[in-house]
Design goal:
Blueprint (H helix, E strand, L loop, with lengths): L8 H23 L11 H4 L6 E8 L6 E12 L18 E7 L8 E11 L25 E11 L2 E9 L6 H4 L3 H8 L1 E2 L5 E8 L6 H8 L12 E2 L6 E10 H4 L10 E12 L12 E8 L4 H6 L11 H7 L9 H8 L2 H10 L9 H8 L34 E4 L32 H8 L18 E2 L19
Parallel strand pairs: 9-14
Antiparallel strand pairs: 1-2, 2-10, 3-4, 3-11, 4-5, 5-6, 7-8, 8-10, 11-12, 11-13
């Protein structure tokens, strides 16, 4: 007679949670909605996945330190590539404006904007209906087996005037290893050199976000999972893909007065805007107008300040309003400013974990999201790192409270980067910009609970017994890994 196999409560919890995470990973892309990794930051994001910005990265290029690399990821939860993508793919939205903005003087408005506008070219005959890719493998961007292509125009916008930098071709949605046996080669062909130095790429890529699934419960409920200390960190995003815009430009292009040494700090964010029209007047002769539908800068604004995700948010609530306004307008959003001084997750964690909450107002959290790390602006690190007041030519009277991902262009590249960034003593890491391999959840939870200067909150996120994360990004342009692919 066979003996009975007994399962400990911890093992049962692990299996149950692992199954739930697998289901979540599958249900997201198949149903068009998911909350994994905070990749859906507002109700409006669910309704327009092609415009849903997930992450922004900004860092000194490790392979060319005179340049800065800016990355905007969009359209999350793309399933691993198979031949099915030859029929149903994940393009950028035609006609929309995908933009990365930089603010050199700290007034909350863009001084330099990089704008991609996409067009789709379909070479398939009207009849018979054919897939977008195949039947022979695609070995180059000019292959006859690639029947549908996206091209784009990249412009640089300053003082309201747009200057074309390059026309390019986006690397296609990966259609699996049979139809696209060497996607890296296709991606290399899609890299475009820019006048004056720099380069750009529009491509599908493996999602790089290193989500800590234990943290989602802390943000939203105050507890790290159903069985504390036994929650596996099986990140469902580790097998998913996104669309990526990667831009590398000389630092002098984005620094105030072209001088990164004198003016080292720049704020970065990305937006997507859709074309529309003014229906209150006649359409004849109207030039296209654009409505901002998505915004992303510092990661986890919704999680970190409101402790919210899909199912906890309401249409046209504070998360939606954030998506639709500019950083300059943040200083007039009273509810946003108030929440930055008293973030919701801190109170939830304190109640659920019997962990002392730092006293309010939380000037350190407002500095984290709206000012940068400074010696005397409320931040607790005790030195100037990436606040616009460090720019010698900035007008201090015009510097605004504005949510941006702030980067000091002169911080040396760390020889051995620490994934937890600044909270672990690595000054080049988040929140001094954001490198692709930086962790966000752990450091943000620790800062929300008072670090540095307060009691250590590192124990609120115990090391998981399973840790499935995306592969580390590469150290050379375009840094991101090629899309996850199956057959």
């Amino acid at each position: 007679m066979l003996g009975t196999v007994r399962k400990s409560p911890q093992r049962i919890a692990i299996l149950a949670v692992g199954g739930a995470l697998t289901a979540a990973a599958l249900s997201g892309p198949l149903t068009g909605s998911s909350t994994a990794g905070g990749h859906v930051d507002a109700p409006s994001s669910v309704k327009d996945t092609a415009a849903d910005l997930t992450d922004v990265y900004a860092f000194t290029s490790p392979d060319n330190t005179d340049t800065v690399t800016l990355v905007a990821n969009v359209r999350p939860f793309q399933v691993p590539a198979t031949a099915a993508n030859a029929v149903v793919d994940f393009p950028f939205a035609d006609g929309a404006r995908y933009e990365i903005h930089t603010d050199a003087d700290g007034d909350g408005t863009a001084d330099t904007t990089y704008r991609w506008t996409f067009r789709t070219k379909d070479d398939r005959p009207a009849f018979p209906p054919l897939p977008k890719v195949g039947p022979l493998p695609v070995t180059s961007l000019s292959s006859s087996s690639l029947r549908v292509r996206q091209t784009y125009t990249l412009e640089r916008v300053r003082a309201g005037k747009a200057e074309k930098l390059v026309d390019g071709t986006a690397a296609p949605t990966h259609a699996g290893r049979v139809l696209m046996p060497d996607y890296g080669k296709l991606r290399d062909q899609a890299v475009e050199k820019l006048p004056g130095g720099g380069q750009t790429l529009a491509s599908q890529a493996a999602d790089a976000f290193k989500a800590n699934t234990q943290a989602f419960g802390l943000y939203t409920l105050g507890t790290a999972g159903p069985v504390p200390k036994w929650m596996p960190d099986a990140n469902p995003l580790s097998q998913m893909n996104v669309n990526s815009l990667v831009l590398q430009v000389p630092k002098s292009e984005v620094a105030l007065k072209g001088d990164p040494k004198r003016n080292p700090v720049v704020g970065v964010w990305s937006t997507v805007s859709r074309p529309g029209a003014d229906l209150s007047r006649g359409l004849a002769g109207q030039a296209p107008s654009y409505r901002q539908v998505s915004r992303q800068g510092t990661p986890h604004v919704a999680f970190g300040l409101y402790g919210s995700t899909i199912g906890m948010q309401r249409d046209d609530g504070p998360e939606d309003r954030f998506q639709h306004r500019t950083p300059r307008e943040d200083q007039d959003a009273k509810d946003f400013l108030a929440t930055s001084l008293d973030p919701v997750p801190t109170r939830r964690i304190a109640a659920a974990q019997n962990f002392p909450a730092p006293a309010t107002p939380r000037n350190d959290i407002q500095a984290l999201f709206l000012k940068g790390i400074g010696a005397s602006n409320g931040a607790k690190f005790g030195y100037d790192l990436n606040t616009h007041t460090m720019n010698a030519d900035a007008d201090a009277g015009r510097i605004a409270l504005a949510e941006e991902l702030r980067l000091n262009l002169t911080t040396p590249v760390t020889g051995t980067p620490h994934p937890d960034g600044l909270i672990a003593g690595d000054k080049q890491g988040f929140p001094n910009g954001r490198r692709i391999n930086d962790n966000i959840d752990g450091p943000l939870i620790r800062m929300l609970m008072g670090e540095p200067g307060g009691r250590s909150a590192e124990g609120l996120l115990p090391k998981p017994i399973i840790d499935q994360q995306p592969a580390d990004a590469k150290s050379t342009f375009p840094y991101l890994n090629v899309p996850n692919a199956l057959l």
